[in-house]
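Tip: read the tokens left to right.
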């Protein structure tokens, strides 16, 4: 595993564009710090400071930071599809196979790189969240501080699954721009199917089935936190209650899709004439 990971990391770090995109992917989540210190002057009447409103209290901050950080995953998605596109355009994929790397090892090297960078990103979010939370939060008891740390697990699974999908599209299309376009096409198709299901059955049934679609399943791992924050401010508003938790079933669905994407990428490469 270490050998395959080293091979892939060398390819990424020797490519200037990949290095810049990876750097940006790791830096962008730190803008949450700027968000925490943001002060908004409301018509000169008073100053609204997000850090003082309790939105960065434990345990809700784990939900907040992982949700925002997951929005920046598109930058590394460009790296994933680019590393496949470059393999084909530079003929390095054929050279790797000639040099003794099997097709299975080739796909595994990509997957190991995806998992490795996802782990680094998750570790950064852990330390970032812990730092902001300890600074702003009114609660410092360990039982409260680490109560919703399972959002980090959901964040890691979400990154690995999304990048595995990008790997599959990269292998399928072999061109970076078209592979990224297929992400948007898949997103549109999922909503078209949802509309058909809602029209054929009802919204509740359509939402249940939509939860098995790949992109929607990934989104469901970390639902939006804004309604949860509002619930905390207005506990008497029962109409705001919703299920924001991380569920094992949803994680299993996304893990199944991850396995499908990796196996499909291998099948494409195995059956393709290079």
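Filled-in amino acids:
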């Amino acid at each position: 595993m270490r050998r395959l990971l080293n091979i892939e990391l060398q390819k990424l770090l020797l490519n200037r564009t990949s290095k810049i995109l990876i750097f940006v992917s790791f830096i962008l989540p730190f803008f949450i710090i700027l968000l925490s210190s943001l002060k908004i002057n409301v018509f000169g009447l008073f100053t609204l400071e997000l850090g003082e409103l309790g939105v960065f209290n434990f345990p809700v901050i784990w939900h907040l930071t992982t949700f925002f950080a997951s929005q920046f995953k598109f930058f590394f998605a460009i790296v994933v599809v680019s590393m496949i596109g470059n393999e084909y355009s530079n003929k390095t994929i054929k050279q790797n196979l000639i040099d003794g790397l099997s097709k299975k090892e080739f796909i595994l090297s990509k997957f190991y790189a995806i998992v490795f960078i996802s782990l680094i990103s998750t570790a950064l979010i852990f330390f970032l969240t812990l730092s902001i939370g300890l600074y702003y939060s009114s609660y410092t008891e360990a039982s409260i501080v680490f109560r919703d740390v399972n959002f980090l697990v959901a964040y890691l699974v979400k990154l690995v699954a999304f990048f595995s999908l990008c790997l599959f599209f990269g292998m399928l299309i072999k061109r970076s721009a078209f592979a990224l376009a297929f992400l948007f096409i898949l997103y549109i198709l999922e909503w078209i199917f949802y509309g058909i299901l809602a029209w054929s059955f009802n919204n509740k049934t359509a939402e249940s089935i939509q939860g098995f679609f790949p992109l929607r399943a990934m989104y469901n791992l970390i639902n939006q936190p804004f309604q949860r924050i509002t619930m905390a401010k207005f506990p008497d508003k029962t109409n705001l209650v919703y299920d924001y938790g991380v569920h094992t079933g949803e994680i299993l669905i996304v893990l199944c899709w991850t396995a499908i994407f990796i196996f499909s990428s291998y099948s494409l490469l195995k059956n393709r004439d290079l």
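The two ends are 24 Å apart (CA to CA). The first strand starts at residue 39 and ends at 42.
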